[in-house]
Amino acid sequence: MTLDERMFFNFALEYAIRRVQVNQDGLKLNGTHQLLAYADDVIILGESVHTVKENAEALVVATKEIGLEVNANKTKYMIMSRDQNAGRSHSKKTDSIERVEEFKYLGTTLTNKNSIQEEIKSRLKLGNACYYSVQNLLSSISLSKKLKIKIYRTIILPVILYGRETWSLTLREERRLRVFENRVLRRVFGPKRDEVTGEWRKHIMKSLVICTPYRILCGW
After folding, report:
1. Could you tell me if 111 and 101 are in contact, meaning their C-beta atoms sit under 8 angstroms apart?
2. Cβ distance 82 to 43 under 8 Å?
3. What is this structure's pTM?
4. What is the pLDDT along the chain (220 residues), one digit of tens a residue?
């Protein structure tokens, strides 16, 4: 798809979305009705299955009028409710749409229980992959500790903290983040020789003085 084609597609989709949002009732986010779009990824929010269904059908009609088509195979729906049986009695028109317990939107994992655990798990998995790709640099004697910390903060930390503005962390998730950071920082600073016993031991967090328990959460 060329640049002109992408621009035309974006204009067409924006036109269809604005038509759907006219005179629509339901959930609002920052004063905007419940249809959010980024490129060709569209999310419809609603306080009821009926509202979401109505807006979804309106979007299908609006896009067809301008030559676009909703990909049913990529369309999913999820209900965030304490009652996990809510919305199971829907009409046959939505039978072809798969109901899921979680899905990714713009790189962030959303779950039907509004839990952050899966997102933290995913972030740590990606962070580990990033860490292993640069661990030789972090343990290299040719690089200064200052440069290693810069590598950590510019390459690894953004991967871990992606989307952190929406996190509501529990103590358990904070500990998981600290464990990961401690492991990276021990790789950076290496072992330390005990002056009394002469044995080599790992640095502890008190001797690192790199970050407080909350700095990783704030991206400092």
Report:
1. yes
2. no
3. 0.67
4. 676 777 888 888 888 877 776 545 555 555 555 677 777 788 887 777 777 788 788 888 888 888 888 887 888 888 877 665 665 555 444 456 788 888 888 888 888 887 888 889 999 999 999 999 999 998 888 999 889 989 999 999 999 999 888 888 888 988 899 889 888 888 888 766 556 666 555 554 443 333 433 444 444 4
